[in-house]
């Protein structure tokens, strides 16, 4: 799917998104349900008791406005609360309900994740509601959820149950769902290695108020074969990152140096899962491809390339285990296994706000490290070829995960200085 979502039939939209949710481990074979209400007032919804891992468009049920059910299965048993949400919030056109592990963790301890973990999470998810427990599939559950949605929430934690979210379309609902689960995961992992820090509303508002100066447009543009090849490479890596949970639909930027200081970069406000080759933005001689808006982080990428001739690709993203270090004051020590140290060496951590354009922070622009964590915001990975940069990102996330998981076993014992020096000599790093 793409931003041209209105031209995709609801049954195809639902089949695509439920597949993504299942493959990412955010629901089970039997759990979760998705619906879309169309312009006629008919609701398209996932069926009851059909394998979510192999759901096809033909399995999707249509519940007509008059209550008539069309399809070869029964509609989801949770259809009553989908219907109740649409009745109280007519501007919402899609609803997702599932039991993703991190959000269920909050559900069973009866807490709400603090979306001030990052400006993106707060901006996309907004305040989160809370619905008391009622019997699944009951009208009473629908009434309680509808009352929460009446308060203006677009995302709700369901007590001892999971979460339910709404959106202006299915892309919007999925973006909110994926972002909230990422937020919850990061907080959970952060609590295992330290104490999560949260941004103030003032800090978030200051960041969001930044409007990058729009680059002038290129008058004429040519698409050389090597340029087209690099566009395709970016699309493949971004999709791969989404599939592995290293990017989410609402956040993640990738770029490659194309010619001297010219570059190709992902756009702003385009679903990362559905990135197409024509979405990539060419920036040449400080000008942008006509009719396209590059990532708001384009200035950081441009400056890194200017200051670091050996850097030819950059990934800026949020991944949950790395961001566990990004939301705490815990040092990310990569002296875990030889590969981690050889690839990453020392990972710098910068305070939130030092990535604002107004500060022009040289620690970011000089890219002295392969990986740099910006607290409560992102991780920046640099490298030569894009696949190599992606590999560094994977190594960094795996290393962070090992440390987080190992915390329950005991204190980490890193490689000692002598072992690190042997690696330095052997691999000339």
TrEMBL record:
The record's GO molecular-function terms, alphabetically, read: aldehyde-lyase activity; metal ion binding
Q: Which InterPro entries match?
A: Aldolase_class_II_sugar_metab, Aldolase_II/adducin_N, Aldolase_II/adducin_N_sf
Q: Tell me what organism the protein belongs to.
A: Lutibacter agarilyticus
Q: Which GO terms describe its cellular component?
A: cytosol
Q: Which residues form the Class II aldolase/adducin N-terminal domain?
A: 12-188, 232-404
Single biological process term from Gene Ontology: pentose catabolic process
UniProt-recorded name of the protein:
L-fuculose-phosphate aldolase
Q: Which domain of life is it from?
A: Bacteria
A Pfam family the protein falls into:
Aldolase_II
Q: Which UniProt keywords apply?
A: Lyase, Metal-binding
Q: Does the keyword Metal-binding apply?
A: yes
